[in-house]
Amino acid sequence: MAVTSPGQVDLREPPSWRRTKNRIATVLMVIAFVLVIIPLGFVLYTVVSKGVGIISKTFLTSGIPVIVAPPDVGGMGPAIAGTLVITGMATLLAVPLGVLGAVYLNEYGGKSPLARFIGFMADVMTGVPSIIMGLFIFSIWVVHFGLSGYSGLAGSFALGCLMLPIVIRSTQEMLKLVPDSLREGAYALGATKSRVSVTVVLPAAIGGIVSGALLAVARAAGETAPLLFTIGTVTIGGSPNWNVFKGTNTSLPSQIFANASSPYPGAQARGWGAALTLIVIAFILMIAARLVTARFSRYSHY
Amino acid sequence: MEQPEDTVTNVRLPEPTVREEQVAPAPTGSPVFDTKSVSIYYGAFKAVTDVSLSIYEREITAFIGSSGSGKTTVLRAFNRMNDLVPGARVEGEMSYRGSPLYGKDVSPIAVRRRIGMVFQKPNPFPKSIYDNVAYGPRINGERNKGKLNEIVEHSLRRAALWDEVKNRLNTSGLALSGGQAQRLCIARTIAVEPDVVLMDEPASALDPIATGAIEDLMQELKSQYTIVVVTHNMQQATRVSDRTAVFSVLVNEESDTRTGVLVEYGTTGQIFEDPHDSRTQAYVTGRIG
Q1: CA-nearest residue of chain B to A199?
Q2: B119–A184: do the CB atoms touch at under 8 Å?
Q3: How far apart are CA B117 and CA B186, in angstroms?
Q4: Is the pLDDT of residue B22 over 50?
Q5: Inter-chain contact B121–A302, Cβ cutoff 8 Å?
Q6: Where are the domains of chain A?
Q7: Which of B84, B86, B125 sits opposite A182 (nearest CB)?
Q8: Which domains can be identified in chain B, with CATH numbers?
Q9: What pTM does this model have?
């Protein structure tokens, strides 16, 4: 077997099952990867191909027409405005609270019963169906104000409830990754616990925290169910409502719900357009997440 | 724990260099730390028992001894770092310049502002080099940009790191080599002008050249700070320290526990040339690890 000149060592791999098994495993993994990419690619292709035709400046800024209107009339302006303000307000409510909550859980709570209870409840909340969040806000907030209880703000509360446990848990995971040696270094300089948490631990974890928060935002932007009982009518006519505190509102997912399954071609086209717009917004958020993370963690690596 | 005479093998290690000043036993200054019969527990586990010694001003005191003998535990007790370990408690009297360290109203924050610590593995913050050194002064309330610049430069010069980083103060502290990172941590520690600098095996993670730089630094810092250093490296103890405390492990056969104990404490010259306790002799001549 050793076809070498005298004195040399034969380093070739002896024939065995190993090489074949390795090849089979590699092929299986590639197949698995492709299988995962296919539905993703298919979804993207479908939305882009069906929606791109209707996207135009008119579409992005015009008011929502009646459902029977042809494709070139009107647009999704109010829905875009609604999604932006409602999701924006929900982020303002949920992210600071969630991050501070995670700081408490990881830095202060430790293994205390209260901390474990809060952590457990956060985990339970991540599993609560989003429509329940909407119902919850409906019953404790919207109902008390009568008809004027419907507002973007109510929708923000519902989306905020949805985002909060996600932000808490992902932030906590990021905080756990910060090595204790950094905390010790700060304590040794005479820093108090709050100082250490805010000036050393949070900045060290900020990249991951921002990523996690933006994922929560993207999730909230695509939710319909919590908004059903909170922001009011599903269609809004002419102008976008940028006031999150007053007046009913609408959102892109709500419009997709209303339009895409209707029998009218105009409505369907507008529904697909709204879907494409929503995906683009999520995409922009992801890119923003990368940029912000890179900027904040520029000292964390070489 | 007597070593039987007939098993003594004459292992001649290279002679430790003893500096002339080490021969005089009298401390040059007043005691900075005083410990009387201090025992430290982690929960139910007794990590170190009955330690009584004094650390003197502007000297370098080395703690040496085998692993698990409590050297780091005692060191960390000096600046209340053991408070961070749940269940840790100190029995006995430990005082700093006459005031009890573990008294009822004592603030660990105030303690740590005066007693700094450098750790075994360099732990620069993921911030710029400037922000690393300025961190301490900033949390003490210093806001003036000019003053901060001064403090940063002064500390980096004293830590023998200024020339290497003066043109890149805004780059990440994590981008430094091991030796540079440790000097950065030392600069960070002295930027708050502490009274004492505790060092937990500061050079054990570094190569010999960087180790030499750290040791030279310790000699220079001695003129201004009191230094206590834990080291596994006996040659380092002889090169650098004025006084040496030797710790050992007390094994309790019945309860299967190992507790640290202070075996001997004296000037470095005396410990290495004329050890009184046989355990000290066994450790410094290398017969036990």
Answers
A1: B135
A2: yes
A3: 8
A4: no
A5: no
A6: 82-251
A7: B125
A8: 29-123+194-284 (3.40.50.300)
A9: 0.82
